[in-house]
């Protein structure tokens, strides 16, 4: 599946936050309801500050990547579309078109870690706390000099 990637517009933010939440609930089983509410407010604040690129199907966003300062800050795919190449397409766009070489991932999210490692990212650091100071260890990943393939 190859869909066109385009830059998000502000009117899409509510849909992207819904997509983020459905993806988080499907993949971040280690988060409590309180945590999800906390991070929902953060994503509402920070998503508009990122360069956000989307993939749609039938006019509705099914995946997005948020980029900031040379990093992939967010990559989320609607749970109904996981395993269909949407995340891969967004990642390859971020790497090849936007020069992204770094991403951080929750240590407990083994599926995401495996995804990035599959494309050549390696762990270069670890933080015991996430950037909000919560006890969710973060792994810092970096892509080597080799190019990942389409």
From TrEMBL:
<dbReference type="InterPro" id="IPR016181">
    <property type="entry name" value="Acyl_CoA_acyltransferase"/>
</dbReference>
<keyword id="KW-0012">Acyltransferase</keyword>
<protein>
    <submittedName>
        <fullName>GNAT family N-acetyltransferase</fullName>
        <ecNumber>2.3.1.-</ecNumber>
    </submittedName>
</protein>
<dbReference type="GO" id="GO:0016746">
    <property type="term" value="F:acyltransferase activity"/>
</dbReference>
<dbReference type="InterPro" id="IPR000182">
    <property type="entry name" value="GNAT_dom"/>
</dbReference>
<feature type="domain" description="N-acetyltransferase">
    <location>
        <begin position="3"/>
        <end position="145"/>
    </location>
</feature>
<keyword id="KW-0808">Transferase</keyword>
<dbReference type="Pfam" id="PF13508">
    <property type="entry name" value="Acetyltransf_7"/>
</dbReference>
